[in-house]
Amino acid sequence: MKWSEVRQHFPNRCVLVEALQSKTVDNERVIEEMSVIDDFESGNAAWKVYKKLQAENQNRELYIFHTNNEEIRVIEQPYIGVRRGI
User: Fold this and answer.
1) Contact at 8 Å (CB) between 12 and 72?
2) From CA 21, how far away is CA 61, in angstroms rounded?
3) Sheet strands side by side (includes 28-40)
4) Per DSSP, which regions of 1-86 are E strands?
5) According to the lineage, what is the superkingdom (predicted)?
6) pLDDT of residue 46
7) Which tens digit of pLDDT belongs to each residue from 38-78?
8) How far apart are the C-alpha atoms of 5 and 35, rounded to whole Å?
9) CA-to-CA distance for 63 and 37, rounded, in angstroms?
10) Which of 15, 2, 8, 1 is closest to 66 using CA atoms?
């Protein structure tokens, strides 16, 4: 689905989506096709499901958006922190 279709099918909802087709352009993730995993009344409920699914498979590209937003933007930022080796 395109974002415009998601907004039409799930008005005024938080949606947990998986990017099916995406690319990076100038540090911004452009999601061309997405699949809605579920919709929620609140971001807190969506976040709980997001964390569970991400823990099961970290390779999935999951996002939470609110359909009141006409456009979605995902800015990529490099990880700044400490990584520990085993």
Assistant:
1) no
2) 10
3) 62-66, 14-25, 28-40, 74-75
4) 14-25, 28-40, 62-66, 74-75
5) Bacteria
6) 97
7) 999 999 999 999 999 999 999 999 999 999 999 999 998 87
8) 11
9) 10
10) 15
Euclidean distance between CA atoms 71 and 64, whole angstroms:
13
Q: Residue 79 has which token pair?
A: 């990880």
Using alpha carbons, select from 2, 29, 28 the residue that is nearest to residue 15.
Answer: 2
CA–CA dist 6, 18 (Å, integer): 12
pLDDT of residue 82 exceeding 90, the answer is no
Two structure tokens written together for 85? 């080796």
What is the 8-class DSSP label of residue 74? E
CA distances from 18 to 22, 75, 78 (A): 10, 16, 21
